[in-house]
Amino acid sequence: MTDIVHSSYIPPSRNEIDTMTSGNSGFVPPLKLIQGTSREVNQKVDNLQGQRVNLAPGMFYFQPKNLTFGERVNISVISHRLHVIAFNGDKKVEESYNKESPIFKRMWNAPDTNEYRVSKGYEWLVWLADIGEVATFFPGRPSAREVSRSIHDYITKPDLRETDSHKELPYTNCFELYADFKKWKSKSSWVPYVTAIEPKPHFMPSEDIVKNAVALFMSPVINEPKYEEAPSNSVER
């Protein structure tokens, strides 16, 4: 996405990103959809009403505030990047953001096995309108990726959309993000979806917040090496 639907904001240049991210790790905290296997299940958290509740599958959780939005949360999409993460069991073993990197390409095309699995796809930079914070949302597993296609359809200008049915969708970056429980033959999962909602003034942060958030969000993409180092064959003598 190169622009913001309800703003005239233009993304920063490479030099601006380099300046703004100096000394930063490029980490923007995630908005997480809790699954039955998530380690946070039953953790005591706050909700938007200030009550202490047990975190349950199907809830959206924002760790920096130890806060749950429940099963629905208002978001405004600011930007996106590609992201791929490889896991060995539950342990993250590799990660890449730059599609030009051979590391990214190798991971992206790797098949899942019993031990090695890959989460991949669009990662979204979003504004959490109800608490005034930026976050990332990464629907990287196969059952979750449909929500990225839906977001992409909404934020694409109508005259650039591929099908007539998509052209009827409202042109917006403001959504209610929610989850439904789905069951298949061999698995089940909470699956994210979006519904377009009418934008309100607080649904878009200031241009300064957006500019700095995008710079931080995109810094791993820009700074990642575009080559994969070969293992050293040297032997100390």
Helix content: 10-25%
- Order of SSEs, N→C? HEEEEEEEHEEHHEEH
Termini distance?
53 Å
Query: Rg from C-alpha positions?
Result: 19 Å
The total count of strands amounts to: 11
Dominant shape: globular
Strand content: 25-35%
DSSP helical segment count: 5
Low-confidence stretches: 1-12, 16-24, 231-237
Mean pLDDT over all positions: 84
Overview of this protein structure:
- The chain has helices at residues 14-20, 102-108, 146-155, 164-167, 207-223; strands at 31-33, 44-47, 52-54, 60-62, 67-70, 72-88, 91-96, 116-128, 133-137, 174-183, 188-196.
- It has 237 residues and is an alpha+beta fold.
- The protein has a domain at 14-20 and 71-223.
- Strands 6, 7, 8, 9, 10 and 11 form a 6-stranded antiparallel beta sheet that branches. It has a 5-stranded mixed beta sheet with strand order 1-4-5-2-3, with no helix packed on it.
- The chain is globular.
- Residues 1-12, 16-24 and 231-237 have low confidence and may be disordered.
What labels would you give this structure?
237 residues, alpha+beta, six-stranded antiparallel beta sheet, 5 helices, globular
